[in-house]
Design brief:
The chain is built from 5 helices and 5 strands; from the N terminus they run H-E-H-E-E-H-E-H-E-H. The chain is of the alpha+beta class. It has 2 domains: about 35 residues; about 120 residues, no CATH class. Strands 2-1-3-5-4 form a 5-stranded antiparallel β-sheet, with helices on one face. The termini are far apart.
């Protein structure tokens, strides 16, 4: 009789645990939305994250916000598009002009990264610091855009190591 009671209690405990997991998953889906894009938190971006040949990039202007390419792809979007800044992962904050000359991938990467970081520091301080953990990456010309389009601009983009923006970093600044 005792083993029947123990087995019954284990069964009730397992059933309760299963129901708790189902409720937690259901609440999470309801809060986030069933079609929510993958989270972008802790993505570290650099000078090769996207470039001038990434579809949609050449249409961006200062202040434009956009999702990461993987999130766009998960939403069925084949190219990057502007979107509202709240809930996005990236915002264009300036363009810098690179020195002219023959194509040199290393020089373009170093120069574009340094120029974007310099402007970033003037606006938000040290990259990766502060509560919002804002950081910067350049969107650089490629050899093709350098040669064929005479592209000498690097687009400077701000992002947060924490994922999506809860405020617009340009108009509202970084939450401290």
């Amino acid at each position: 009789m005792r083993s029947f009671t123990v087995t019954r209690r284990r069964g009730a405990l397992l059933l309760s645990l299963l129901l708790a997991v189902i409720v937690a998953v259901t609440v999470t889906i309801a809060v986030r939305g069933g079609d929510a894009a993958p989270a972008a938190a802790n993505v570290v971006k650099g000078p090769h994250f996207i470039n001038a040949e990434t579809p949609g990039v050449l249409t961006f202007e200062n202040g434009d916000c956009f999702h990461d390419p993987a999130i766009n792809a998960a939403m069925g979007e084949p190219r990057l598009n502007t979107t509202g800044c709240i809930g996005s992962e990236n915002e264009v904050f300036t363009f810098v002009t690179l020195r002219d000359g023959a194509w040199d991938a290393r020089r373009v990467t170093v120069e574009g990264s340094a120029l974007c970081e310099q402007v970033f520091r003037e606006l938000w301080g040290r990259p990766g610091s502060g509560r919002a953990r804002l950081d910067v990456y350049p969107v650089l010309p490629t050899q093709q855009t350098w040669v064929e389009r005479d592209d000498r601009n690097a687009m400077c983009v701000v992002y947060s190591h924490l994922g999506t923006f809860t405020v617009d970093p340009i108009t509202e600044g970084a939450p401290e």
